[in-house]
Design a protein that fits this description.
Distance between the termini: 120 Å
Order of helices and strands: HHHHHHHHEHHEEHHHH
Shape: elongated
Number of helices: 14
Number of strands: 3
Strand order of the largest sheet: 1-3-2
Radius of gyration: 40 Å
Helix content: 55-70%
Strand content: under 5%
Low-confidence stretches: 1-67
Structural class: mainly alpha
């Protein structure tokens, strides 16, 4: 009896046909389409997942920008408490605080805060404020570092007689002698102006001179004021001549008091600068001792650590913290390790030479 063979449910495709170049092209295009579709699906799922994570962070308060900084807590304090806190700062610190934001600037630049500036100045023994300046201006002159003319920074030198801090370029442009001013303003009463504005004997090169130097904008401002008084006299305004005489007497007295105060202020500032330098040296030594102690605990000798005394990381005028130690240790330890190896090598050579010399004897 003949045996019947049933066809399979999944018939095998006939693969005897030769694959052509068109077939390969079709296969590649189908693969590309499938990959592109998978890519879209992957990016969409990734974006959806990131959106969920961001929404979760926002709901939990992380990364939402609603965290309250410590400065806001400080500003929420009562005004009298704030002023009391600021009065215990140094004048230089108060200047920095006043430049933090507009709110603090408005607080420290009012008449109610004059006592804060005065208390900070008196605590360090600073000289009295001149009559033609207020306390913030006086503090900025003593402890600031900005040129009052062009705004250049890191200006360390200033003139007590001119009551001005200026850079080298501004001094060269604005410091003029009497002869130069007379040549620029050929007026008969120009000689009277020199008694009404401050002068100095320190020229643009920061050296004392036998000439008197005047600040050119002060000359122009004084000429403008005298011109207004003389105009009132010319138009026969009542009391115009007396007002001019009072103004000249007031200005002459101000110039005289400024000169007296300048001499005292220079002496005080020199002593204060030496004291600040000594404090910085003390802070630097304490920082190096802290670094030295850290390396000794790691097994090094104090002689090994002496090699890094003048490294920039050891000369900073700031206390050593654990965070700072983790940052500077990889920089300093190779130097200390090299000195340790040199010391051990020298000791090894000395021991070897001593043994050989003893054996020869």
């Amino acid at each position: 009896m003949a045996r019947t063979i049933k066809a399979p449910r999944n018939p095998v495709r006939n693969t005897s046909r030769v694959t052509t170049r068109d077939d390969l092209h079709d296969d590649e295009s189908s693969d590309d389409d499938s990959d592109y579709g998978n890519g879209i699906k992957t990016r969409a799922s990734t974006a959806k997942k990131a959106k969920k994570q961001s929404s979760a962070k926002t709901s939990s308060g992380i990364g939402s920008g609603k965290q309250t900084p410590s400065l806001v807590r400080l500003l929420a304090m009562p005004l009298d408490v704030l002023l009391e806190v600021f009065s215990h700062l140094t004048p230089k610190d108060i200047i920095h605080v006043s430049r933090t934001n507009r709110f603090l600037r408005d607080i420290l630049m009012t008449r109610n805060s004059i006592s804060v500036w005065r208390a900070a100045r008196e605590r360090i023994g600073g000289p009295e404020c001149p009559s033609n300046m207020n306390e913030p201006q006086w503090a900025a002159l003593l402890f600031g570092n900005v040129c009052q003319t062009c705004g250049a920074r890191n200006i360390t030198k200033f003139d007590f007689f001119l009551l001005r801090r200026a850079c080298q370029q501004c001094k060269t442009e604005n410091l003029l002698t009497k002869s130069t001013i007379k040549a620029h303003f050929p007026r008969r009463d120009i000689e009277d102006i020199f008694q009404l504005i401050p002068s100095t004997n320190v020229g643009p090169n920061h050296r004392a001179s036998r000439f008197c130097f005047f600040w050119f904008p002060d000359v122009e401002s004084m000429l403008q004021k005298l011109k207004e008084y003389q105009r009132n006299i010319r138009f026969h305004h009542p009391g115009a001549q007396r007002a001019l005489d009072d103004f000249k007497a007031q200005r002459a007295g101000m110039v005289t008091s400024t000169r007296k105060l300048a001499r005292k202020s220079e002496i005080w500032y020199q002593e204060y600068a030496l004291l600040c330098y000594a404090d910085k040296q003390t802070l630097g030594n304490e920082r190096f001792e802290s670094i030295q102690l850290k390396f000794i605990k790691l097994g090094y000798k104090s002689s090994d650590v002496e090699s890094i005394r003048w490294e920039p990381e050891c000369r900073l005028r700031a206390p050593l913290t654990e965070k700072m130690w983790k940052r500077i240790r990889p920089i300093l330890e190779p130097i200390v390790f090299e000195c340790q190896q040199e010391r051990l090598q020298r000791a090894k050579v000395e021991r070897y030479s001593s043994r050989t010399s003893y054996s020869r004897v």
